[in-house]
Specification:
The protein is of the alpha/beta class. The protein has 9 helices and 6 strands, in the order ββαβαβαααααββαα. The chain is globular, with a radius of gyration of 16 Å. This is Alpha/beta hydrolase. GO terms for molecular function: hydrolase activity.
């Protein structure tokens, strides 16, 4: 069974451009995190959505890639594929490393975080059309504000020191959120931005099927 985990606050809409009709799959649904809930405990609860009687393949986008790697520490998986994500804090940009060190997200009010997302999303996600921009902004608007704050805190404080041989990393060479120059051992998608799961879906689809067949 293949389980897909979307990015921060997103849902299965980001996977709609993949043809998944040939594989048995499910989409992991985000739970509402409890106040001060740890990432480990949150991921433990997410595993309740996984059928543990079958082989498990996880595919995570961006923050979903971080979640997939945390689930791998809890549950044996045949393979984990992360897309437009990172494997540890060492792959952060210098700006994210600085923000993490200073814990800037704790200072910024919620409305500012939300507004910043809306104003800069098209640039950082590298949308290619009005339709893509509309989809992205709708996803941002639908994101629960409390989940946004919790997830940003988890990203800023996450540092992974366990790298599995079963992990495959697919990354775009034009990703502005996680620049390719900081990414190690990834399959590169030329000119792929952070939203390439949408606008380079056919290339990613082929890589996914080649990896799991």
């Amino acid at each position: 069974m293949v389980y897909f985990i979307s990015g921060l606050g997103a849902d299965e809409r980001v996977f709609q451009f993949l043809d998944l009709s040939k594989i048995e799959h499910r989409f992991i649904k985000w739970n509402k995190p409890r106040k001060n809930e740890s990432l480990f405990n949150y991921c433990q609860e997410l595993t309740e959505q996984i059928d543990k009687t079958k082989e498990v393949i996880l595919i995570g986008i961006s923050f979903g890639g971080i979640i997939a790697q945390e689930i791998l520490k809890i549950l044996a998986c045949k393979k984990v594929i992360i897309i437009s994500s990172v494997k540890s804090k060492s792959e952060f940009s210098w700006q994210l490393k600085l923000a993490s060190r200073l814990q800037i997200h704790k200072i910024a009010p919620l409305w500012l975080l939300t507004l910043s997302n809306l104003l800069t999303a098209d640039y950082y996600f590298d949308t290619k059309s009005k339709e893509e921009s509309k989809l992205l902004h709708q996803i941002i608007k639908d994101t629960n504000p409390n989940f946004l704050v919790w997830a940003i805190h988890q990203i800023m404080n996450w540092d992974n020191d366990k790298h599995s041989e079963n992990l495959i990393h697919i990354h775009g060479t034009s990703d502005k959120i996680f620049p390719i120059k900081n990414i190690q051992n990834a399959i590169e998608i030329p000119n792929g931005g952070h939203f390439m799961i949408v606008n380079k879906a056919s290339q990613i689809e082929r890589l996914i099927f080649d990896s799991i067949k």
